[in-house]
């Protein structure tokens, strides 16, 4: 276990916000986490558990304890004719896991290549891309209760996954810390390439297989998204709004080219990036906070921005979209 005082959180958030925490505690096992949760260091002051910091926006110094997982194990638990079950520690870098699975010929997560963050946070957030979400491959989630330090296993159903949501962001928010995730991966991969022009792009790189899918998605993401080491960002800043079919039809009459994805018989999803772009925000800046010039869904720290500056820009964008389209954008990023 590693305990550090008065630590800069600059390396622990991809937005590159330079704030400090009173304490930073990194644990490498369930037993160490249980020890921390029952110690005075967290029982006497506020504490926050973070992953890779790719979905956080710090607005000020954190007065308390930051916890971080260094549980980095990847272990095959069992297999059958069609699936392999792999338990992955919460501190494993998500894209390292995807690379590991692809190299072993296990399908199910290749469409989620190059998403930033760690496995524990991915299971909380229900990360998704190119028609796939982590919930599609989750069998169980293992966590420790903050109050009692007891271990619990959650079935996929108990996680109550939805679009960028889970029980860990809802009813059980702040009550459990995920320590590992059990994934059910395909030994005979079923490729999902019906998202936009993905199959067409993959075929440019050769035969359709796990490796070409991963290579293609990495190339597409790198062409659209800025490197966090160069330009601070948290990837997609807003969730794609889901609106009623009735309201969508009314919008479509006014804006015939509005893109959409059918969610159900009564709901349609509209790309937030398109809405922001149509409001003229792509490439614009307010002070040291800006909108990426290649992807309007990405807000960036152009250098030295504070969390408050990023929030102000986000609020201005939300107001613009609400005024023009009557749609409220919800941040995917958590303000701390």
TrEMBL record:
| Keyword match Cytoplasm | yes
The residues responsible for catalysis, as annotated, are: 164, 236, 332
State which residue ranges cross the membrane. none
Q: Write down the EC number.
A: 1.3.1.98
Residue ranges of domain FAD-binding PCMH-type in the record: 17-188
Presence of the UniProt keyword Oxidoreductase in the record = yes
What Pfam family is a match for this entry?
MurB_C
Per its Swiss-Prot or TrEMBL entry, what cofactor is needed? FAD
User: What subcellular compartments does it reside in?
Assistant: Cytoplasm
Concerning Gene3D superfamilies, the annotation shows:
3.30.465.10, UDP-N-acetylenolpyruvoylglucosamine reductase, C-terminal domain, Uridine Diphospho-n-acetylenolpyruvylglucosamine Reductase, domain 2
- Quote the pathway field: Cell wall biogenesis; peptidoglycan biosynthesis
Gene Ontology MF terms in the entry: FAD binding; UDP-N-acetylmuramate dehydrogenase activity
According to its record, what are the GO cellular component terms? cytosol
The UniProt keyword set, sorted, is: Cell cycle, Cell division, Cell shape, Cell wall biogenesis/degradation, Cytoplasm, FAD, Flavoprotein, NADP, Oxidoreductase, Peptidoglycan synthesis
**Can you cite a GO biological process for this protein?**
regulation of cell shape
- Which PROSITE patterns does the entry link to? FAD_PCMH (PS51387)
The UniProt entry, under PANTHER family, shows: UDP-N-ACETYLENOLPYRUVOYLGLUCOSAMINE REDUCTASE
Q: Which NCBIfam families match?
A: murB (TIGR00179), PRK00046.1 (NF000755), PRK13903.1 (NF010478)
Which family, according to UniProt? Answer: Belongs to the MurB family.
What is this protein called in UniProt?
UDP-N-acetylenolpyruvoylglucosamine reductase
* Source organism (scientific name): Paludibacter propionicigenes (strain DSM 17365 / JCM 13257 / WB4)
């Amino acid at each position: 276990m590693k305990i550090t005082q008065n630590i800069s959180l600059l390396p622990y958030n991809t937005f590159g916000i330079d704030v400090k925490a009173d304490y930073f505690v990194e644990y490498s096992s369930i037993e160490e986490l249980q020890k921390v949760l029952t110690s005075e260091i967290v029982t006497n002051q506020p504490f926050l558990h973070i992953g890779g910091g790719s979905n956080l926006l710090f607005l000020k110094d954190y007065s308390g304890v930051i916890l971080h997982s260094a549980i980095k194990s990847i272990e095959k638990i069992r297999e059958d004719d069609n699936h392999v079950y792999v338990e992955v520690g919460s501190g494993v870098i998500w894209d390292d896991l995807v690379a590991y699975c692809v190299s072993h010929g296990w399908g199910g997560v290749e469409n989620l290549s190059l998403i930033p963050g760690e496995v524990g946070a991915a299971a909380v957030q229900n990360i998704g891309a190119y028609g796939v979400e982590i919930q599609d491959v989750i069998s169980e989630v293992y966590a420790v209760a903050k109050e009692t330090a007891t271990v619990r296993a959650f079935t996929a159903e108990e996680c109550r996954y939805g679009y960028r949501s889970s029980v860990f962001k809802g009813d059980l928010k702040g009550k459990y810390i995920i320590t590992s995730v059990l994934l059910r991966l395909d030994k005979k991969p079923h490729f999902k390439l019906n998202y936009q022009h993905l199959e067409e792009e993959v075929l440019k790189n050769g035969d359709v297989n796990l490796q070409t899918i991963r290579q293609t998605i990495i190339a597409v993401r790198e062409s659209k998204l800025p490197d966090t080491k160069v330009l601070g960002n948290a990837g997609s800043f807003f969730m794609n709004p889901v609106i009623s079919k009735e309201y969508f039809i009314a919008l479509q009459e006014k804006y015939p080219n509005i893109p959409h994805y059918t969610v159900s018989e009564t709901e349609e999803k509209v790309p937030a990036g398109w809405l922001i772009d149509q409001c003229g925000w792509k490439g614009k800046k307010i002070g040291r906070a800006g909108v990426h010039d290649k992807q309007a869904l990405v807000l960036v720290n152009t250098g030295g921005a504070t969390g408050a500056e990023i929030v102000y820009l986000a609020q201005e964008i939300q107001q613009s979209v609400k005024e023009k389209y009557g749609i409220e954008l919800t941040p995917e990023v958590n303000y701390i």
